[in-house]
Automatic annotation (TrEMBL):
Keywords: DNA-binding, Sigma factor, Transcription, Transcription regulation. Belongs to the sigma-70 factor family. ECF subfamily. GO terms for biological process: DNA-templated transcription initiation. This is Putative RNA polymerase ECF-subfamily sigma factor. InterPro entries: RNA_pol_sigma-70-like, RNA_pol_sigma70_r2, RNA_pol_sigma70_r4_t2, RNA_pol_sigma_r2, RNA_pol_sigma_r3/r4-like, WH-like_DNA-bd_sf. It holds the Pfam family Sigma70_r2. Transmembrane segments: none annotated. Residues 18-76 form the RNA polymerase sigma-70 region domain. Residues 101-128 form the RNA polymerase sigma factor 70 region 4 type domain. The lineage of its organism: Bacteria, Bacillati, Actinomycetota, Actinomycetes, Micromonosporales. GO terms for molecular function: DNA binding; sigma factor activity. It comes from Actinoplanes friuliensis DSM 7358.
Length: 129
């Protein structure tokens, strides 16, 4: 990859990372799995950067597939949570958090592939065509 392509890729990652990670989280319901899916997607995209004509569409498709695939891995079935609380206090956005929790709870009841369709259609705004 030449310098110009590498710069373009870095700019793409800077501008899209949070969006891709959020999409992965809504698809799989776990931040660590979402991080792994996003990293795997960006690694694949980096290798194919010159060949990909629509990086946004490619990345969205790959991050959803990666999130579904990561969720299926056997070591993902066990969860351990630390007992320590974060040091920084977050501002109170109870109404937003409540709505996000209800959405997350509702999506967690839907099968993974159907959840991906709902996320892409309604949260990402993709058309049905």
């Amino acid at each position: 990859m030449d310098t110009e392509d590498a710069d373009d890729f870095r700019e793409f990652v800077r501008s899209r990372f949070e969006q891709l990670r959020s999409l992965a989280f809504v698809t799989c319901g776990d931040w660590q799995t979402a991080e792994d899916a996003t990293a795997a997607t960006l690694a694949k995209l980096y290798r194919r950067w010159k060949k990909v004509t629509t990086p946004d569409a490619y990345a969205r498709t790959m991050v959803v597939r990666a999130a579904i695939s990561e969720k299926r891995k056997p070591w993902r079935r066990e969860r351990s949570f630390g007992s320590e609380m974060p040091d920084a206090a977050l501002p109170d956005h109870a109404d937003v958090i409540d709505e996000q929790m209800r959405l997350h709870h509702a999506l967690s009841k839907v099968p993974t592939r159907q959840r991906a369709v709902l996320v892409l259609r309604f949260l990402e705004g993709l058309s049905v065509e």
